[in-house]
Every structure is written in C-alpha cells, then in structure tokens.
C-alpha cells in the first residue's frame, strides 16, 4: 500500500464529511462544522490518501500542551488492517514537546478502546450521557507524551 500523508491544509471539508459518514454508525460532524474547524488556528488534521482518495484521518485541537482528539475515522474498506493504529502512532510520534492527549470514546466501542489502550491511552473518567444517537456514556482517556506533567 502506498499511502500519502496529508495535513490540515491538504484536506477539504466535504471529503472529511464523506469519510466520517461512511465510518461512523451514529453520523458525526456536518460539513459546515468541518469547514469551521479547519479554519481554526488550533486545528490539527493528519490523514492518509491512497490513489488520491482520503482513507483515514485524525483531527484534534492543540492548545498549549493539550491535544484534544475530536475525530478518528478510517474508511470501512480499510478497517481492521492496522490503518488507524499506524495513523495515530505516526502522528503522535511527531510531537516533540510534552503534551497531554485527550479523547472520548463510546463505552460500547470496544475495538476503539483496545486500539487506544494498545497505544498507551488510559481511562480516567466516565461521562454519562455524553453521546446522542443513541444516548451513551463515554470513557474519557488520556495519553502523556514526553513525560508531560501537570504543573
């Protein structure tokens, strides 16, 4: 597989929206929300293209030393092939300074939880009724990169 890496300025809201709709059972962000997010100076997008088609991406907001992951999506045709893990580990390895990475995951999404735990994320809280469609709790998880400490 020859996968080209793409950054925030190399993706369009419509392709993020299309991939998210194919990847998430509960929907996801609207195209307008992606357009707004892409314009934010704190937004970070990292993805992969095969033959020009976006097959996976991760998005986040970076404020000081906290990186809050907002979306992780892998095209269903590419799921269960290590794409999500490769994308996340490659992207997170690029952060040189100490950073705390945060994310939320549905309590029912055991596959994603296992992936995040494999990478090193730990659950630190359960937030009830966090998700809609259907209403569900979320595990809040974090990962400390390069010996991040809360000072």
TrEMBL record:
It is found in: Cytoplasm. InterPro entries: AcTrfase_RimI/Ard1, Acyl_CoA_acyltransferase, GNAT_dom, YpeA/RimI_acetyltransf. GO terms for cellular component: cytoplasm; ribosome. It catalyses: N-terminal L-alanyl-[ribosomal protein bS18] + acetyl-CoA = N-terminal N(alpha)-acetyl-L-alanyl-[ribosomal protein bS18] + CoA + H(+). It comes from Weissella coleopterorum. Coiled coil: none annotated. This is [Ribosomal protein bS18]-alanine N-acetyltransferase. Residues 3-146 form the N-acetyltransferase domain.
């Amino acid at each position: 597989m020859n996968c080209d890496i793409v950054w925030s300025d190399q993706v369009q809201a419509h392709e993020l929206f299309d991939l998210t709709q194919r990847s998430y059972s509960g929907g996801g962000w609207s195209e307008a929300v992606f357009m707004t997010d892409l314009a934010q100076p704190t937004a970070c997008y990292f993805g992969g293209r095969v033959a020009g088609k976006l097959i996976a991406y991760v998005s986040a907001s970076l404020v000081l030393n906290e990186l809050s992951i907002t979306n992780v999506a892998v095209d269903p045709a590419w799921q269960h092939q290590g794409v999500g893990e490769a994308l996340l580990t490659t992207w997170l390895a690029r952060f040189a300074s100490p950073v705390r990475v945060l994310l939320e995951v549905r309590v029912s999404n055991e596959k994603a939880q296992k992936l995040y735990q494999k990478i090193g994320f730990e659950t630190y809280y359960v937030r009830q009724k966090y998700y809609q469609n259907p209403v569900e709790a979320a595990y809040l998880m974090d990962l400390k990169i390069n010996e991040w400490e809360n000072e």
